[in-house]
Q: What sequence folds into this?
């Protein structure tokens, strides 16, 4: 029994809690009233200022440069999915094909069928990638070739895949085509699948001789300028093709059309003879300029990526970088190829050695730190390109790395996942961005446009 | 005094509210320069009567302004003060009305020998600053016109943790002393918010600037005091703090930069002294006055501060009708306080001294069983002069103090 007037500990605690809640509520309510917009009142008493605010500084002095040749050990040229044929901006390529004529005969495919009586026609089939157009004239997109003329050569020996890119192989003879118009075979550009007519006697002779035989397909000099991609035997990215019929072999192959009376195992009278190996020669491949004065290139397919180190000596120590933009000018008159992501990354300056060495793609991935990029850059249309490298320049100013750093311009590789769109990697399409060099006009040369602010109270301070 | 233990409520309230309230941050544009604005850290009882309290001796409602007065406490005493300001500031740039709540002091006294010897500790904000200016601004870079806002914010406080003792060696005389751990910070932030041009996401294309200067204060001072009551109607009290040094570690940095500047210097804080008088008039009325001076003319430190320094003088006078316990006394039992305080600031602004005049009034409400009290005070201050200083502020402040007593042993 509690004494009268004594409510006990728990009663007092309850009242205490109530009082505390009320007081806290009052304090919180008052604090909610503390927001008031600052204005100019008192401005005359402010004597602090940042000494330099938004100072522009252009840096176009490149003190180290390298055109990095990048190899993908997993996908050598002979394993690439696309074969390139034609000439464009200093690049020329023929297509080499090896075919095994040691045919395996059976009850359907009898040796006797390989005679002028049964074999009606033979064509060499090439399937063009959809991006190179259906052949209709298209002035806005020069990649869409209008007319193409081909020569076909029988090689002295099957090609050696390790020799390419390299010079064109020796050949025993130029083949004539089984058309009245004669040599060369001219493809009007219509359709995505090209059928090059082969003389029957040539083909039957190869079958009689058996063994592996190499062929070379070249574009004549009077063909429309352009480097056109065709499906290779290793093509897996079927999305890059237009719709093709079921059963189509998209890599270069011979299409053998037998007499109607012939019925092969699949119930048809057509036999597709696939190749045993194919490759692009890239027998003319302009070397990436060794000096940035002459311009520089970014090339996919056979990757070549330019790397720079700018001379930052004009940038004050302790500058805060408000913005830094890496600007390059793409020469759209000579650049060619498909749309690509372009990515700017930091690169350890040790890789900017002269002459530039060759790196593997894995080594490059380990050496870079991705900064920024742009997607769907058209080498033919996009001239002025700017990349925001503010944080990278700030890191350089802050000396956060032990060694020196440069910038490398690459395509959308796997290591730049933000800019690696789709399933096509940069080795698929052979494209080339030709950028103007440091000897170009001020507004066209590669440069950093830096905007910085500076407090002299910090400049010279320790870190 | 004895009574039921009903002290839990104020203790909990003090602790929770103390955790929630912002620290002591005064706000007028005068605090944009120099050592900062003197913060009124008196409890609401003193504030209501103009701020005098050096000569007060009240065991049930002790003031902490003069540590020597604490000798008489017979209970563990906690005191918490919070305040809310509405400030109207004006200069050529216009007017700004701002609001703030803050908690300038929390103090505790513990009797060791009841009525003779006590120890004390606490947390007291002496000076503070909190003001922000902002103006639209624009810059040119490359082909861009960059627009945004330049904002300057000054924020910080100097506070102390006094660890003291009060002792009465003779009837009518008491002495007090404390070791004060002086601490504090001051942060000045200058922003260039660069808002346009912007990206599609709304972020500025150009990174904004932030230049920050951060000072950390550290020092130790000693304060002594006395209270002398030669007559039942007259008391005299005083306190004295000798000059002391405050070490300042300064760090200047810019957002995004690894480089930063570090330096250190010493603030030579001048001596501070105060003298107070209380006289009991007829009935429940008392009158009192305090005069305090801190000789900032002897201050040593940054030249841009020192050159504007002058002695800080404060005169507080007021009248108080103390509380009564008349049955059915009603409102007449409540204490009534009025006061006036005049202060000359420690530094000049606009080439002229800054005068601050405060009118105040207040009252209080006892807790049951005489185990504490809640006091409130309302004050109105005029700071500076538009003509002389280029700006002026008018402050309406509501102060609330909770004093709790408890017998813990």
A:
């Amino acid at each position: 029994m509690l004494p009268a007037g004594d409510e006990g500990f728990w009663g007092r605690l309850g009242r205490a809690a109530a009082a505390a809640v009320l007081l806290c509520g009052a304090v919180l309510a008052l604090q909610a009233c503390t927001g008031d917009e600052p204005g100019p009142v008192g401005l005359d008493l402010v004597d602090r200022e940042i000494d330099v605010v938004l100072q522009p500084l252009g840096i176009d002095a490149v003190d180290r440069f390298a055109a990095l040749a990048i190899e993908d050990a997993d996908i050598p040229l002979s394993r690439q999915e696309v074969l390139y044929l034609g000439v464009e901006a200093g690049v020329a390529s023929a297509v080499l094909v090896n075919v095994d004529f040691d045919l395996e005969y059976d009850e359907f495919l009898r040796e006797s069928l390989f005679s002028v009586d049964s074999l009606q026609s033979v064509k060499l089939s090439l399937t063009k990638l959809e991006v190179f157009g259906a052949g209709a004239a298209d002035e806005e997109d020069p990649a869409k070739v209008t007319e193409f003329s081909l020569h076909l050569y029988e090689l002295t020996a099957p090609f050696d895949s390790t020799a390419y890119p390299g010079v064109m192989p020796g050949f025993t003879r130029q083949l004539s085509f089984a058309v009245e118009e004669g040599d060369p075979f001219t493809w009007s550009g219509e359709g995505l699948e090209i059928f090059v007519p082969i003389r029957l006697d040539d083909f039957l002779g190869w079958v009689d001789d058996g063994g592996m035989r190499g062929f070379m397909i070249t574009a004549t000099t009077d063909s429309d300028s352009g480097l056109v991609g065709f499906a290779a035997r290793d093509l897996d990215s079927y999305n890059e093709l237009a719709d093709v019929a079921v059963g189509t072999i998209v890599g270069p192959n011979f299409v053998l059309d037998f007499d109607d009376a012939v019925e092969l195992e699949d119930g048809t009278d057509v036999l597709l003879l696939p190749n045993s190996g194919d490759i692009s020669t890239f027998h003319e491949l302009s070397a990436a300029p060794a000096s940035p004065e002459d311009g520089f290139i970014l090339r996919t397919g056979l990757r070549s990526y330019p790397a720079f180190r700018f001379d930052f000596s004009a940038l004050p120590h302790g500058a805060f970088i408000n913005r830094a933009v890496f600007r390059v000018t793409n020469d759209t008159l000579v650049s060619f190829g498909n749309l690509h992501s372009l990515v700017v990354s930091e690169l350890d300056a040790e890789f900017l050695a002269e002459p530039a060495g060759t790196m593997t793609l894995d080594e490059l991935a380990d050496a870079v730190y991705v900064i920024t990029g742009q997607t769907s850059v058209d080498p033919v249309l996009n001239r002025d390109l700017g990349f925001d490298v503010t944080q990278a320049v700030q890191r350089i100013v802050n000396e956060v790395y032990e060694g020196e750093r440069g910038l490398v311009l690459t395509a959308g590789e796997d290591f730049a996942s933000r800019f690696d769109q789709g399933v096509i990697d940069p080795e698929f399409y052979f494209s080339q961005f030709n950028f103007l060099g440091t000897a170009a006009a001020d507004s066209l040369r590669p440069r950093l446009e830096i905007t910085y602010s500076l407090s002299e109270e910090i400049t010279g301070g320790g870190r | 005094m004895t009574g039921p233990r009903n002290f839990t409520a104020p203790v909990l309230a003090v602790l929770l509210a103390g955790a929630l309230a912002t620290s002591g941050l005064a706000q007028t544009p005068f605090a944009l320069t120099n050592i900062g604005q003197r913060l009124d850290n008196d409890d609401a009882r003193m504030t209501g009567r103009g701020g005098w309290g050096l000569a007060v001796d009240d065991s049930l409602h002790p003031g902490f302004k003069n540590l020597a007065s604490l000798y008489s406490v017979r209970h563990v005493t906690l005191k918490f003060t919070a305040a809310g300001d509405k400030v109207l500031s004006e200069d050529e740039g216009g007017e700004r009305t701002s609001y703030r709540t803050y908690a300038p002091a929390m103090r505790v006294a513990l009797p060791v020998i009841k009525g003779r010897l006590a120890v004390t500790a606490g947390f007291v904000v002496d000076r503070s600053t909190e003001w922000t200016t902002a103006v639209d601004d624009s810059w040119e870079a490359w082909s861009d016109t960059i627009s945004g806002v330049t904002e300057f914010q000054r924020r910080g406080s100097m506070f102390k943790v006094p660890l003291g003792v009060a002792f009465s060696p003779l009837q009518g005389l008491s002495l007090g002393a404390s070791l004060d751990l002086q601490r504090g910070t001051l942060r000045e932030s200058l922003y260039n918010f660069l808002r346009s041009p912007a990206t599609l996401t709304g972020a500025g294309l150009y990174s904004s600037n932030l230049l920050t200067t951060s000072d950390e204060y550290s020092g130790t001072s000693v304060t002594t005091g006395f209270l002398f009551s030669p007559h039942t109607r007259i008391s005299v009290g005083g306190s004295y703090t000798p000059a002391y040094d405050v070490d300042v570690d300064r760090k200047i940095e810019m957002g995004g930069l690894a480089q930063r500047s570090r330096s250190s210097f010493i603030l030579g804080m001048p001596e501070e002294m105060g003298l107070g008088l209380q006289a009991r008039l007829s009935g429940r009325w008392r009158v009192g006055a305090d005069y305090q001076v801190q000789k900032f003319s002897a201050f040593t430190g940054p030249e841009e501060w020192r050159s504007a320094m002058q002695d800080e003088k404060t005169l507080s006078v007021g009248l108080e009708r103390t509380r009564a316990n008349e049955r059915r006394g009603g409102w007449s039992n409540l204490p009534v306080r009025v006061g006036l305080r005049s202060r000359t600031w420690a530094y000049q602004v606009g080439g002229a001294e800054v005068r601050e005049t405060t009118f105040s009034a207040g009252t209080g409400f006892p807790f049951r069983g005489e185990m504490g009290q809640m006091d409130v005070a309302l004050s109105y201050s005029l700071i500076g002069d538009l003509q002389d200083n280029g700006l002026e502020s008018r402050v309406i402040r509501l102060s609330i103090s909770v004093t709790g007593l408890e017998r813990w042993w």
Summary: The helical segments of chain A are 8-32, 200-209, 361-367, 390-398.
